[in-house]
Amino acid sequence: MSQLTPISLVLGLSAAVMVAVSPNENVKFLGTIATGVGIGGFMFSHWDSQENKKQIENLQKTVDLLDRQRRNSEDEKNKTIREYNTLKIKLDKELELVREDMQRHQTSNNSLKSRLSDLEHELKLEKSSSQSKIREISNFSAGAAHQIVSETYKTELTKLGGMISGYTNNYPDLTDFFENLESEIDKVKSWAVAELEAYKGVQNLQSLIDEGLRIQQRIISRCSDIKVKALSTIIKYLNGLAEDSVKFSEYQDNIAQISERAREHLLEKESVIQSIAEEWVTANTSTTERYSSEFNEVLENGKLLVNRNLELAEKIESLNRPYTWSSPTRQDLRIGNIIITYFECMGIILDRAKSDYDHWQASLSFHIDRNPRIIVASELEPEGVRLQQLTHTLSPIKFSWDADEGCMVAWLHLAKKPVKPIIEADVNKIWKTADKFQTIVKRWSRVRVTGGSESGKSPTGENLAVCILLARGGTAELYNPQHDSVKNHWTIPIMGISHEDSLIGIESLAATVNQKTNDHSQFKLTVFDEIDSTIATVEKKNQPEIGKQISTIIKQLSHQNLGAVFIGQNANVRHYPGMDRSDWNSAVSVHIGSNAFDAIANTNQLPKDEVDRLKLQAEKLTEFCATKNLELGLDFTNPQAYRFALVIGDGKPYFIELPSFGTYTYDMVESAVKCPSCESHNHISNGSKDGFKRRKCKDCNHVFSVN
Prior knowledge:
Blueprint: H1 4-21, H2 25-43, H3 49-170, H4 175-199, H5 205-245, H6 248-320, H7 331-344, E1 351-357, E2 361-367, H8 377-380, H9 384-391, E3 398-402, E4 407-413, H10 424-427, E5 431-432, H11 437-441, E6 446-450, H12 457-472, E7 475-479, E8 494-496, H13 499-515, E9 524-528, H14 531-536, H15 543-556, E10 562-568, E11 588-592, H16 595-602, H17 608-632, E12 644-648, E13 654-657, H18 666-671, E14 683-689, E15 692-697, E16 703-706
Parallel strand pairs: 5-13, 6-10, 6-11, 7-8, 7-9, 9-10
Antiparallel strand pairs: 1-2, 2-4, 3-4, 11-12, 12-13, 14-15, 15-16
Helix pairs in contact: 1-2, 2-3, 3-4, 3-5, 3-6, 4-5, 5-6, 13-15, 16-17
């Protein structure tokens, strides 16, 4: 029995006890290994000592391997736990930010609802006032009608009373008759008073006329009946006197005279009655016309008041909004407008005041007087990091209070200030110079040009269009809604001068490329200026249809020997409803000046290192152009000023120096040598013959001579 036997036996028994007693899993694991080792050692204790040593070494290696695997497993478990805890902390923070955003949006919605309620109350008050005025005119017209009928009653009864009183004095023998006649007159009065009382409750225009005429006619008729009855009685009385006191001939003469006087009197009364009736009709006609005209006038005034109220409500809403920089031609001013809009959503009004700018940094000043409470810098400071993400500044935006100016000041870090001046030779390494512009763009056919106000997008669009035509030949047509602008310097033939014309042109071109109806023998280029403003003139629900038509043009245009240039202010595709980024992949996009930063920020097709590289190059070119223009005393609107653009869609994104305004004009196309067969400018030298230079058209292979 070797010396290994007792050692192995002791090791195995000890390990077995550890496995049975210890609750620790790691101890049990090691105990199991030790038990195996002990048993193995005991079994091999009877072998040759040299063989035992080898077995022991192998067992030791196995034990080491198992131990390493256990430690690795333990490390992996701890690493997983740490990663889980880190991820949980990050998600908790993001959840808290989302909750804060929701709270702010809820506050903004409540404010808007309150404002809407106030405007609705004001509209109700104006509506009530208009209706009150309409009722006043209606009441006035009804009162006039009632007065006319009452005057007719008073006039007729007065005339009738005067006549009966005169007859009573002239014929005292008929006193009893006239007293009885007074009772009939009282009945007429009672009836008329009742009718007039009922007539006062009539308000409808047509009923006023109909009832008024009926009552007047009845009053006049009954009064006339009483008059005729009185005259008849007087005639009979006179006839009786005549029979007793005069000869028959005299009697006849008297009767004839009395009859004539009675007839004349009746005719006179009929004339009076007719005159009264005509006056009534005239008065009623005048009242009707006046009522109609005044009612229409009040109605129109009411409509004008409602429209005016709506206009005032919109004006009040716009006046209550913060004041922004109306022409944000620089990066700092655009960022200022973003800051104003951001805090407006939080219920804080920041009115633009002024800006101090030097390309690398800027200080924006805002008035805060229109807030109902005091706004302090510490309240705005926590939003600096989020604003940095929104505005793409190099560091969080910082806020401070300028007591001298009485303004809130936001400090922006726009770009890294160069340590040394920019050398022009270094700049030429990061952009393609203007002398290469014609060579670069001549092969383009679908182009989008974007730039801010007065960035030179329209002159650049014309330079680009002319260079394409000089290479490909053909014709061009322009849709320019700003045709009457003082800044209109286009030389390309005008096809449309309004947004409506541009919409018709887009629809027509989309139909042409869909139906493949154009003449393929000659290239035609269509230029649409102010395209985003044109889309904005259409109702929102119809804007996606315009976007689909533009998408159709871009994707299918090149198959029809056609070209198109779309010029607008916005580099962001979201301003083209119905389109997305992929729709512009078939076109070349030229983003001028500061629009290059927006295009870089909005792209999702470039890796981060490429985005960072393009941003640094854009900052360097912005500084270089500003410095050169300052040295030469050139305003940014000067045709000779230095400008650059970012080109996307022509291979790898790159920057290009833009040629001066008017470098290429349409008369160059009209005067250029054309192929006599297809009118193409795309031809090359083909030797000479009989002293004439010969050219070969690359489009139709026709060979021709030139002087």
